[in-house]
């Protein structure tokens, strides 16, 4: 039994160590290397378990045992440099809101990738009724979902609908006026993103960018970014550099980010991740307890403070909805 366990842990340890070390090449133009950037939590946990198990099981150490242990320690170090940003060890990037005096400076946003194949809108509608957000961003909206969500139009009089049948339809509902809504196609003609100016109750304007870039993996029937010189988020970053108002970027980014927002968008000290210093809030995959990581993100500029950040219950999609309550400081 000890030999069988040793072989099992050897195999898991070697896979974890190699995967973790190769993940350094996360920005290489190779899909499979980029995909190693996603399961960092899982690789970290697997490496730690293997390290402890091998330390206990191995009685007579050989040269390859030391090599495997070195690989595991390297993997733990590599992954921890990314994951540490989502622990309380690191200070928050977006400060907590304090001294709340006026509700006119506050607003909330609910993000939901509904998944086109999910044909039960009621859980999401009930969740919206419960959380009462001011803004709703729904992604993967096809004609069926667009019709189902029209029950929101009385409470959310302002909206933008860009619908398609290839998993990248997008709808934005708002209680606040939407001005100058622009639908952009940053990399693909079937992958929309929104840029709009929102006027809050206090009369202040904010810029809101909603995005849903294509994933690094290739899917036969979905748009692809192969051969592109710049990603959608890098193109978005160029627009944000010239911003006029406090800015929010939100959506299913199909990327784990790990708080390296500047690298992702090509900006520098402009956008800040609301997750940093607070937790992972893994929003994908809602259908798997083990393989989960943060894909749905909210980035804000320095004018905002955070009141609440929540991962909401399942709605039948492979994504958990996310809820963010923000304060625009004076």
TrEMBL record:
The lineage of its organism: Bacteria, Pseudomonadati, Bacteroidota, Flavobacteriia, Flavobacteriales. SUPFAM superfamilies: DNase I-like. GO terms for molecular function: endonuclease activity; exonuclease activity. It comes from the Bacteria. Keywords: Endonuclease, Exonuclease, Hydrolase, Membrane, Nuclease, Transmembrane, Transmembrane helix. The keyword 4Fe-4S does not apply. This is Endonuclease/exonuclease/phosphatase family protein. The chain crosses the membrane at residues 7-26, 38-57, 64-84. Residues 112-319 form the Endonuclease/exonuclease/phosphatase domain. It comes from Aequorivita lipolytica. It holds the Pfam family Exo_endo_phos.
